[in-house]
Write a structure and sequence with these properties.
about 240 residues; mainly alpha; 9 helices; single chain
């Protein structure tokens, strides 16, 4: 997720530089449209801008700014595919990504989309330019950026185990690891098994010790009995005893 945020910040930084040159961008579109004799229809797709740059661009300034726009669109498209590898997807996030991919498609018609507040890209155009020519194409990047920020916001609210591991693991392996944890804990708590021979040796040793203890107790008891039975009375002189 950190890699996604970093990539998004880099694209936003490039877009801020592009935004400072919006008038240069509009002028380049105007000149290339004139060269293409295509002054009636609006600039309504990324593919149309690509065609103007490839076939109808006559100076380096126009080529540079048109290429800058196309590079940002390309970076956004790559980021869309990266987002699919980071998150397995739910209805909300999948819907956001699908919209981004549709907007960035080279053949998608952008003529009806408009970036709204707080974006003011449309406000920098004349009424005719905004309505009939460039309102859609200047709105594309800010709308897609907003969608991707929304994707990040929704994804960060999801449980951590739902996210894919960007290094190649998946949510499934993480879930399996959690399921196996109790079994591993039970195994770790089981007392170590003793080898049968060791058990036999231990039993024999205990038996010998018990027998020895019984022998000692029996001997002590006999000694006590002998001592008490053979104990002589007080000494008397020889002769008749009364």
């Amino acid at each position: 997720m950190n890699e996604v945020k970093e990539a998004l910040r880099n694209i936003e930084q490039n877009y801020r530089l592009f935004l400072q040159q919006q008038f240069t961008f509009i002028a380049a579109l105007q000149r290339t449209r004139e060269n293409a004799h295509d002054m009636i229809r609006p600039v309504a797709s990324v593919g149309q801008v690509q065609s103007y740059m490839d076939h109808h661009c006559n100076n380096s300034t126009d080529r540079r700014i048109l290429n800058m726009f196309l590079n940002i669109c390309n970076d956004l498209s790559k980021l869309c595919h990266k987002l699919e590898t980071v998150h397995s997807g739910n209805n909300v996030t999948n819907g956001i990504l699908e919209r981004c991919k549709l907007l960035l498609s080279h053949s998608n018609d952008l003529s009806t989309i408009r970036a709204k507040y707080p974006h003011d890209v449309v406000n920098h155009l004349s009424c005719d330019e905004a309505k009939n020519h460039y309102g859609g194409v200047v709105s594309l990047i800010p709308i897609v950026l907003d969608c991707m920020k929304e994707w990040v916001t929704h994804t960060e609210k999801l449980p951590r185990h739902v996210l894919y591991n960007t290094s190649g693991g998946s949510a499934i392996s993480e879930k399996r690891a959690r399921q196996d944890a109790p079994a591993r804990a039970a195994i770790s708590q089981t007392p170590p098994s003793v080898h049968p021979e060791a058990q036999t040796s231990t039993s024999n040793k205990d038996g010998v010790q018990a027998q020895g203890s019984m022998h000692v107790r029996k001997k002590n008891l006999n000694d006590t009995e002998n001592h008490s039975g053979k104990l002589k009375g007080p000494w008397k002189p020889p002769g008749r005893h009364a």
